[in-house]
Amino acid sequence: MVIDCGTGGHALARKLISCDDKGRRGNILISHTHWDHIQGIPFFDPLFACGNEWDIYGPRGLRESLHEALAGQMQYMYFPVSLDQCGANIRYHDLVEGSFAIGDIRVSARYSNHPVLTLGYRLQVDGATLVYACDHEPHSRMLSLGDGKITGEDLRHAEFMEGADLLIHDAQYTAEEYPEKIGWGHSPVEYVLKLAAHARVKRVALTHHDPRRDDDAIERLVASIRQTSSVDVFAAFEGHVAELKMRPERGALPSSGEVADMPAEGKLAEPVVLLGIAQTRTSAAVCEALQAESICARSLGSMDAVRISIAKNGPALAILEHNPPRIDGIELCRAIRRQAPEHQLPVLIVADREDQDAGAMAGVSDWLIEPFTAAYARTKIRTWLLRTARKSIKSATHAEEERPSHPLRVVHAALCLGGHGIKNLPRVSQRAADGNDPVISSEKAALLWMYGRQIAAFDTPTFSNKVGEIIAQASKAQTSSRYR
Ligand SMILES: [Zn+2]
Ligand SMILES: [Zn+2]
């Protein structure tokens, strides 16, 4: 779904869309590219008017860029006009988690729990905060059924909505209906209210209503919630306008130092995933998901091997089975943390039930609860790989900002991958042979970032688009050399 500016209040809407004699300028934030969230785009008149300018933001899909995913639904067999025939000037922004600015609005993006990469958005401006979290499913199955504490990724989700003036949240099911819908990517309303109360949200708009629930049924549901919940809640409907109280004196824009507007695919070029799975069926399911993503997997091996692998290959993720006494993923995770305490390797535990407390003590990052679909496993894997990639870019950013100003000389040849180059270069920054200009690290992410810095300011759309072009060219070069 496109964030409907009307839902967020007139003042916020005016900040996202403006109009002058040259045309209309606007920004559209898309949570993900499932059809129910993008099918309005081909019928959105302002995209067809010459002179209009639009920026469309959304997460990169499993394989396609945002532009490709949107264009796909407008291929000639589905629609008479292609996306590129739209009259307006449209810029596309492939997002990962992080923060960026649209005018004086601070936008933070965070991955939701859904069977395709999906972002929730937190918009802050003039002291008002709007959070949009659709589509999203509880991470913890116990919590979704009304038991257990808010921990782990659910706690992170609650923190993302902390203190919001308005939370627009997926609430497709009730707790009673949910057990039949596990893995479909949507929330029971009781879970939403529990997290909203924990996060001290001021108002909640329930949305993504189940298509089988008619208006009367939705009204009955809201009425029953109001009898038992202290949260101010209403059901969103088309055309509804919610006014947010702006407090301009608190409106200073926080600095935007985190990575969000960045083509994701280039950061996933060759991630290594460590696997510790004993069960053949589980291993096959996880390996299938990894293969579908063209991701290289290595067996975990001994702890010594893990330590060496972490130092040598910088794995991006470990996936461990927890099925004691056959294999104790939580203990393995604890051992990994002991071996490499400074390496923030994400650890995803595969199990048929969660143990959030023991997992949190051992440093488990997330759980993949069986049974799971291939789409669900792929999205979990992607989410954590993108988070790792984002971290490496962010640390490269900070390292560069702390470095005394010195002209950069980028090894351009390394960008023309051709199936070699970057991998064989040294891993750390070195002095060039002439001892003057620093030669940049071979680490692909850092290299791309630094190259991007030569093109445009870091947090601008130009930066994102240009780096995207470079990655596309490099990938093409790599592919053509492989098949030569
Ligand atoms: Zn969806
Ligand atoms: Zn949806």
Overview of the structural elements:
- The protein is α/β, with parallel strands linked by helices.
- The chain has three domains: 10-250, Ribonuclease Z/Hydroxyacylglutathione hydrolase-like (Metallo-beta-lactamase, Chain A); 265-387, Rossmann fold (3-Layer(aba) Sandwich), CATH 3.40.50.2300; 402-482, no CATH class.
- Helix content is 34%, strand content 19%.
- It is built from 15 helices and 18 strands.
- The protein has a seven-stranded mixed beta sheet, with helices on both faces.
- Helix 12 (374-402) crosses helix 14 (444-455).
- The longest helix has 29 residues, at 374-402.
- The chain is globular and about 65 Å long.
- The two termini are 42 Å apart.
- It binds zinc ion (2 copies).
- Residues 34, 36-37, 135, 208 line the site of one zinc ion (ZN).
Provide a concise account of the structure shown:
The chain is an alpha/beta fold.
Query: What name is given to the CATH topology of the largest domain?
Result: Metallo-beta-lactamase, Chain A
Strand order of the largest sheet: 5-6-7-8-9-10-11
**What is the radius of gyration computed over CA atoms, rounded to a whole number of angstroms?**
23 Å
Low-confidence blocks of residues: 1-9, 251-257, 403-464, 474-484
CATH superfamily of the largest domain: Ribonuclease Z/Hydroxyacylglutathione hydrolase-like
Mean pLDDT over the full residue set: 78
Beta-strand proportion: 15-25%
**Helical content band:** 25-40%
